[in-house]
Amino acid sequence: MTQQLAERETIPNSPKLFIITGRPGRMGNRLLLFAHFIAFAEEHGYRVRNFTFQAYAKFFVGTCRDIYCEYPVSGQRRLLDSIPGLPKLVVDTRFLFRGARFVRLLNQKFSLFGRSVVNLEELPGGITVLDGPEVESLVRPAKTVIVNGWRLRAPESLRKHAEKVRRYFDPVPEIEQKVSLVMERVRQNAQVVIGVHIRHTDYRRWRGGKYFYPVSRYAEWMRGLAGQFSDAKVSFLVCSDEPRSQEEFPGLSVVLSQNSPIEDLYALAKCDYVLGPMSTFSQWASFQGNKPLLHLHHTDDRVDRENFRVSWLED
To answer: What predicted TM-score, i.e. pTM, was given to this entire model?
Structure first.
């Protein structure tokens, strides 16, 4: 699979390389940011290396054998990847990430490399569009662009190159197999499967608990949503960051996932609909699976079937 991906995606090296050095949260955030840069690189013939993604690289076909987490896939194993034990050491010590961040800070202060190496930060005032004139003017003379920021997006490029981005982030076979087993179970007696993401641990305090909803409220939303599929039997796959029990969802056909976060993420991507609080985790599941998502913004929200939309990772 990795070899096939390399054959599909490899293009001639460009003199312009983008190196991502800012770590915007956990897996969902890093996937979202990386996806926009991959689409941007695909559109313009650039290269991207994302040293902040090394902790998750083992999960995906595009990165599992590449310590640099590079796009396009190089198709060749480099020295750091080929020495037994060295890739793990590099990840554990965050050697490449720390080195790139040091160079970024040094370049920010002293401009050591002239115009051939520039720093790219998000612009004030909201989303910075990578395809916009401000970024284009900044990076035009550079051979290397060191990136630090979260609100950096390439929405048009992502929509255009979505399938290549998705292929790059296909899960490795071991994860795909575990996800398939879960989905076989949840689809046994259902025509429609709705994935529900219940995020509790950090959401109790994040933004004052704004997106923390009790399980009983999720169960109410689920019952209301199931009733909107009068012509089909509905089952729910519940993925939570805390242990859950069947008794919390009376009257509903529910399978409780007990898998790792990465397996939950890709199981949600295989559901027919995805429901959950504001989170890049469920956004990624919607995008990767091309499945409609509804984000819950408030405990009084209505959940209507017609309001689900595929996420394009723009929010």
So the answer is: 0.91
